[in-house]
User: Fold this.
Amino acid sequence: MLISNVSVPLIDIFAEQYRELRPRAPMPALDIRFRRFTSLNTTIRLREGTLHVRLSDLLEASPEPVHRAIAHILLAKLYRKPIEPTHADRYRRYVSSEAVAKGAEHIRITRGRKRISTHLGRHYNLDEVFESLNTRFFHGLLGRPTLTWSAHAARRMLGHYDAAHNTIVVSRVFDQPDTPRCAIEYLLYHEMLHLKHPVRVKAGRRCVHSREFQAEERLFPELAQAKEYLKKL
Assistant:
């Protein structure tokens, strides 16, 4: 039984990849659909004998070899099989290409919503910390993005820069009276470096922390002390 709102060849590709990975297993029903995700999301789930595959609509026009790579990667992950390097490399190069990366950025901006809290914390004002760092390290030349505390005191993601919404988010776990100033300054400084050194693509690979980025990060005077505090979190 095959269920889909996409072309038959894609179903055939998934069936073919399933057979290659599990030659003796019975073929399950396939439910493959494109969805208007806010990113290049791909998901696969097995429920009551049916494989439910959901792909970002940004991948709908992908070449057949890329669809084949996606099918192989999703099925291999689901059934805990080794992922062939050729498929992994093909998919990585495709999604890292300039056209696809720009498309992904566009749908994040137009479809996604960023939860903005406030730059004012109980103990730290992110705007004030930003301006202090901007003057000390960037000659005051960095344009200030939206600065906000996270909704929750997250410990897994302490901070991040969202280029699509030009926003720096800092975990509320830092807004405590006993948080050393150097820790929050280093975290914000790191995210500010992402403003100065945007992600680049080299040979199909995303370069998030370039040599220039890392060299400037080492200029932070209390780097070791700040990193030691972050490790405790």
Summary: The radius of gyration is 22 Å.
